[in-house]
Amino acid sequence: MIPIGPLMREHRLIEHMISLMKAEVSTIAADRQADPAFIETVVDFFSTYGDRCHHGKEEEILFAQLKGKKLSAAHEGIVGELIEEHRIARQTMHDLVDANDRYKGGSLAALDEIGRLLNFLVAFYPAHIVKEDKSFFYPCMEYFTKQELDAMLEQFWEFDRKLIHEKYGRTVAELEKTRATGPDAPPPFRDV
Hints:
Four Helix Bundle (Hemerythrin (Met), subunit A); 5 helices; 0% strand
């Protein structure tokens, strides 16, 4: 297996979430209401799986290693586009959290914003995935030796292995900041 195998498999799961989001967009349009818990799940999925896991491997491993290669102008341009698209996706998730919070607080205008943001993501991610799958992933593997590809795949597995610990270490640390106060509070969690 080459490193793009896991990345493309992750795309397939993202596509399934996109299908669920399309259904939610239809529900919002028909019923004029959203499911805040579903929106929270979408944000968690894209923030953790789509961004930290998937985009994390791309940016922190694949793109970082491509920086040491003599890329064609086209491939260099695509790397820049992909990084910008990742930034846009992150910002959209922040906007979706904000709109969902306002909707839960009773804002009907926020419902329209949720629908707009979901519609944006439903169009955005398939195009992003096609760009990676069809125009970038296979050609960029040609820049690496077999040994480099094997090492990168190992880095991907290690990245994934640490991910859940990173996520829930942050969760506990954030909770400790807001909830654990006073003389009986446990000492702050420190990853060893």
